[in-house]
Amino acid sequence: MLLCCAGSKIPGSLHRSLERMQLAVPRRQILASAPWTGFALVVALLSVWELTVASGMVRSESWPALSRVLVSLQEGFQREGWLEIFGSTLYRMACGFSIAAALGTAAGLAMGASSLVYRTFMPTVEIFRVLPIPAVVPPLIFFLGVDDPLKITVIALAAFFPIALNTFAGVRAVDPVHLLIARTFRVPRRKVLLGIQLPSALPYVLAGCRISLGISFIVTVVTEMVAGSEGVGYFIVSMQYAMRADDMYAAIILLSAIGYLLNRAFLGLEARAIHWARELDARGRNA
Amino acid sequence: MARTAAGPAAVPHSALLSLDGLGKTFAAAGAEVEAIRRVDLSVAAGEFVSIVGPSGCGKSTLLQIVAGLLAPSAGEVRLDGRPISEPPEGMVYLFQQYSRSLFPWLTVEENVAFGFRHARDSSRRAAASRCARYLGMVGLADFGARYPWQLSGGMQQRVAIARALAAQPRVLLMDEPFSSVDALTRLELQGLILDLWARGKLTVLLVTHDVEEAVYLSGRIALLSKRPGRLVEVFPNPLPHPRRPVESREDARFLALRHELLSRLLASE
After folding, report:
1. A260 touches chain B (CB under 8 A)
2. Taking CB atoms and an 8 Å limit, are B101 and A285 in contact across chains?
3. Over 80: is that where the pLDDT of B207 sits?
């Protein structure tokens, strides 16, 4: 950049050669490969938050300075018991998600393996899939109350469909040559399903799980907001009622951090489980 | 040696594998396409027979029917006198596309074991030694723990060959198994297949468009016409064993048979 600005004072030939040197490493590429720009924006946004209050631009009980929120966040471990609040939220989420992962994978496999199962269940799946999940909470309260049974059921229901449908798509996308191989080696049907169709669908299954992990996180907090008296969702709503904005924002910041870590952890797990699929992509299918 | 004309009379009862009046018609977009018509061929135990023909003549279709992977529209295939409707025991089909036929989530050793593990309830140790034996046979003794995508194309096809042989078939069906590897690797793999055929009681049926490959490898060569594929003639191969990659290809008998087959193929185009 400096060289460009100083260009007019440099003899023409040297200027051109310097330009050429710059072309060898385009500036845009340096910026694109820099790891800090994304992080810098996060810091900038948080700084703006702090400055809006520190400068006196915003004076409001409902918009405390970031620094005050961070203090509340730190004190909250003792005072509010973050571990317990977030622990109970994550526990419900884990229960619901695990049920959805197990049932969703099984349902997707069954629909992919048998056209009878597919034709029988697909219309029902289509009807339930498009239903906004919070809408089923009130009727379910009749039967399940407002505590864990309700919440875990709702989470599992919401997380089920992406996993089931992705698994189904993965089973359908199995390389037909793989299935011919199974036939020529007279592999029994059950082993074809578990030994060929499931592993080759695994990238799809895990992609569905990653979507559902995000959905379960959202739905867990939503169910805690609308029913019961436990978890982060309930805490955030209570703090809003109590006009304790700093505690409310502290919980939201923690929620965001946990969501980020969950997604990163899952991506790491996914990369390990299907390392072969990534290698294959990198080398090209026909290499 | 006299050439035998093909026909139902040429099917002896002692044949290990016999194709009787085999025909296949596909229904494609409302129209019917006849792929092969009335093919009769018999293969005795221990024979190496090649099927050559112009592209699109239904060679692969024919081999898939023999393998029990595709149902014929007419006629039948018998193994040991028993009609084939599903892939029978003791017969393995080796695919052309090695990159798609190996399972990328399994190691080389697990891929080889895949071909036989379900067949008999063998112990883990027995399975491991069986894998090692067949991987050794194809020259990949040290590659069992690798993944298929870590190997070259020729090595992957060796793994596929080891997997096929580890299932200990009596009949090996090969559909252009060397067509997607480079020329030098092809020569190596041809030599490997000849060695493996010569040491065991393996019967091989090979489909190829490569006349030289057919003449170099096989004992008899069946020539198919263009679509619909009919059996034109079966040529016995006078080329003596053992065959050598360079010398055998310069043998007068090799050149004569190659000349005959190529001119017949070109004439039928």
Report:
1. no
2. no
3. yes
DSSP of B70-125, one letter per residue?
A: S--SEEEEEETTEEPSSPPTTEEEE-S-HHHHS-TTS-HHHHHHHTTTTTS---HH
Q: Would residue B121 count as lying in a domain? A: yes
CA distance, residue B163 to nearest chain A CA (Å): 10
With CA atoms as reference, report the closest residue to A220 among A232, A229, A209, A237: A232
Domains and their CATH numbers in chain A: 74-283 (1.10.3720.10)
pLDDT digits (tens, 9 = 90+) for B6-57: 444 444 457 899 999 899 988 877 788 888 899 999 999 999 999 998 888 8
| Alpha-carbon span B190 to B246, nearest angstrom | 12
Q: Name residue, tokens 């140790």.
A: B125
Q: What is the pLDDT of residue B185?
A: 85
Peptide bond into A203 cis (omega under 30): no
Q: CB of B162 within 8 A of CB of B138?
A: yes
Mean pLDDT per segment of 10 residues, for chain A of length 287 residues?
A: 39 48 54 76 94 91 92 91 95 97 96 93 91 90 93 96 96 93 91 92 95 96 92 95 94 95 94 84 58
Count Cβ neighbours within 10 Å for each residue of A51-75 and write b for 16 or more, e otherwise.
ebbeeeeeeeeeebbbeebbebbee
Q: How far is A150 from chain B (nearest CA, A)?
A: 39
> What percentage of chain B carries pLDDT values higher than 70?
93
Name chain A contacts of B91, Cβ cutoff 8 Å: 184
The 3 state secondary structure assigned to B103-118 is CCCCCHHHHHHHCCCC
Q: Which pLDDT score is estimated for A227? A: 86
Q: Which residues share a beta bridge with B79?
A: B17, B82
Helix/strand/coil percentages in chain A, nearest 5: 85, 0, 15
Collapsed DSSP state (helix, strand, coil) of residue B178: coil
Question: Does residue B142 lie in a domain region?
Answer: yes
Residues of chain A contacting B92 with CB distance shorter than 8 Å: 184-185
Q: How far apart are CA B217 and CA B253, in angstroms?
A: 13
> Which one, of A48, A36, A154, A56, lies nearest residue A97 by Cα?
A154
Place of tokens 């149902």: B71
What are B81's two structure tokens? 């006198």
Domain contains B9:
no
**Best residue of A179, A184, A189 to probe chain B, by most B CBs closer than 10 Å:** A184
Domain that holds residue B153: 98-168
* Domains identified in chain B, total number: 1
The enclosing H or E element of B239 equals none
CA B103 to CA A257: how far, in whole Å?
39
Instruction: Please give the pLDDT value at position B10.
Output: 45
Instruction: Using CB atoms, pick whichever of B67, B114, B149 lies closest to residue A283.
Output: B149
pLDDT single digits (tens) B32-45 = 888 889 999 999 99
Q: Could you tell me which chain B residue has the CA closest to the CA of A198?
A: B105
Answer yes or no: is B153 within a domain.
Answer: yes
This model of the complex carries an ipTM of: 0.86
Cβ pair A85, A145 in contact under 8 A: no
